[in-house]
Every structure is written in C-alpha cells, then in structure tokens.
Design brief:
The protein is mainly α and 327 residues long. The chain contains twelve helices and no strands.
Length: 327
C-alpha cells in the first residue's frame, strides 16, 4: 500500500486535490495516490495488450500507435463518467428528500425540543444519506458546537449546488437573527416549488427526448440499411450492365463498376450509429434527468437497440430485394 501510494504521489507530482474531492463526492473509499497508481497500471496494461493484439492482427504500425491511444482515452472518459454518475446520484438523493427533512426539523423545533434533539429526531431512515449527516450535526451541537457550524457540516462531500445554496441561506438567516424553524419552513417550501417547476418544464420538453430516441434508434438504422441495400443493387447493376454495347454507341462514355463496397458501408454505418446513439443518450439524459452524466446508463440500451434494428432491417430488405434479377 505504501509503495503504491508513493508511486502515485510521484507520477501525479502531489497534485491530486481535484481528484480527492471527486472521489469524496462519489464516496469512493480509496486514497487518491493509490487510485492514481492503480489507474496508471490498468491503463498501461490495456495500452500494451491492445497494441500487441493490433500488431498481431493487422501488422500496421499506424494502428499499433493509434488504437492504444483511443483505448486509453475511451477508458479514461468512461471512468470519469462513472465516478461523476455516482457523484450525481448522491447529490440527487440528498436533493429529493431535503425539503421533507427541513420540514420535519422545523416541526420538531416548534414542538419545543432542543435543537440537538430536533436534529437527531429528524434523521429518519427514509432520508438515507441525509439522515446520517443530520445525525452527525445533532451530535456536534450536543457536544457544544454552534448551529451555524452544524449546518455548514451538512454539504461536506456532497457536490450539490442546491444543497449548498440552501445551507448558505439558512446560515445567513441565522446570523441575521432569523428564527430557525421559520427559516427551515420557508426554505423547504421554496425548494418544493422549484422542484415542481422543474418537473413541469421537463414534462413539456420530454417530447424532444422522444424525437431524439426515434431518430437515433429507429430511423437511422433503417436508413443505413436501405443505403447499404441500394449500394449492393447498384454494384450488381454496374457489373452486369452491357458496358460494351453502350461504349460502341457512344465511345466517349466510360462506365466502371462502383468502388464503394457493401463492407465499407456496413463499417461506416456501425461507426455512425455508435456516434449517434452515444450523443443521443447524453442529450436524452440531460432532458430527462437534468444531468447529461446519466447518459452513460442509456448508451448500452440505445446502442443495442439501434444495432438490432439495423440488422433486422438489412435482413428484411435482402429478402425483399432477393428476388430481383439483374440481366
């Protein structure tokens, strides 16, 4: 462990402040320097394995250089997105129950219980991660800490702008002499109103997500399948047409078989369907969840569906045009 940590500190030059926050936000229980070392070893292994495999399969030096670079870039992006996804889920879990927790806390305060007990009683199991933080804040107040400092502890290790702004407003209200229960109730109702407005806006623009889904997973695969089938038919026509007859009638006309093959178009369709579905997933996640990071969850589903429909459309078109004979 010490060797891994020392090596990670060496290759990162001690600059892991941003990574440390990122891991804390995602609740990843690993030291930043150890994470850097493990990630470096993993990426180096992938680069070497992909480079050797590409060289043995293609024997092309250009591919040996470019494929490992692409593989490492894709893996780094995937790891970053996965960590960001865990980070966003923790923040959303807090934001969903925050107004209810504040209302419960305000109700406990109005019932006359001390502030530390009001915090402890508000730490209900259904509040999940927020309950744990509220419980710690209650213990901090019981041990002699101030209410303001207790509130400032709550958004620690949570990357939620709404949560941090809410706590800042409550703390500023307390420092201005406001009543805690009133501040909690007003803030909770404001959060509920904001969340309701967001849901209404999302329901209005949800139709755009449906259009993107149809275009990426239904229309694009069928169009690519039609293009490939059309290219295949034209290729057969160009090979079987009576070129000699045409050239005799018009010596200036020179016809040659098309150079675009069906295999090339198939590879082109695979690449483009992959690009379209990846970006569509992020856009749909931004519309549906309000955060594009959730798009990584949609990628396997959209990509798989697009590929399945692409092959189904190709099979159907080949059967339909299979009876055509070019003379």
């Amino acid at each position: 462990m010490k060797a891994r940590e020392a090596f990670g500190k060496f290759i990162s030059r001690g600059k892991v402040g941003g990574l440390k926050k990122k891991l804390a936000y995602a609740d990843v229980k690993i030291k930043p320097y150890v994470f850097v070392t493990d990630l470096f070893i993993f990426l180096l292994s992938v680069a070497l394995a992909s480079g050797i495999g590409v060289y043995l399969y293609f024997g092309n030096v250009f591919y040996v250089i470019i494929i490992p670079i692409i593989s490492v870039a894709v893996l780094l992006s995937t790891i970053y997105i996965v960590i960001s996804l865990f980070e966003a889920r923790r923040a959303k879990a807090i934001e969903d129950v925050l107004p209810d927790a504040l209302l419960v806390m305000a109700s406990n305060l109005r019932s006359g219980v001390p502030t530390d007990e009001a915090f402890t009683l508000s730490a209900r199991p259904e509040f999940g991660l927020l309950a744990e933080k509220i419980r710690k804040a209650g213990k901090f107040i019981a041990s002699g800490g101030t209410v303001q400092e207790a509130f400032k502890m709550l958004p620690k290790d949570i990357n939620s702008k709404l949560f941090k702004q809410t706590i800042d407003l409550i703390v500023e209200g307390l420092e201005s002499g406001g009543e805690l229960a009133t501040l909690l109730e007003a803030t909770a109702y404001d959060i509920k109103d904001t969340q309701t407005i967001r849901k209404e806006i999302r329901s209005i623009i949800y139709v755009y997500a449906l259009f993107i889904f149809i275009a990426a997973c239904l229309i694009a695969p069928v169009l690519y399948a039609v293009s490939i089938q059309l290219a295949s038919v034209l290729s057969k026509l160009s090979k079987t047409i009576a070129i000699q007859f045409l050239t005799e009638k018009s010596p200036t006309v020179k016809l040659a078989p098309t150079q675009i093959t069906e295999e090339f178009l198939t590879r082109f369709a695979y690449v483009n369907l992959g690009i379209v579905t990846v970006f569509s997933s992020f856009i749909i996640a931004l519309i549906d969840k309000g955060n594009e990071k959730y798009g990584i969850v949609y990628i396997p589903f959209l990509l798989g569906l697009a590929m399945i429909l692409f092959h189904i459309a190709r099979i159907a078109l080949s059967i339909f045009f299979g009876g055509i004979r070019v003379v």
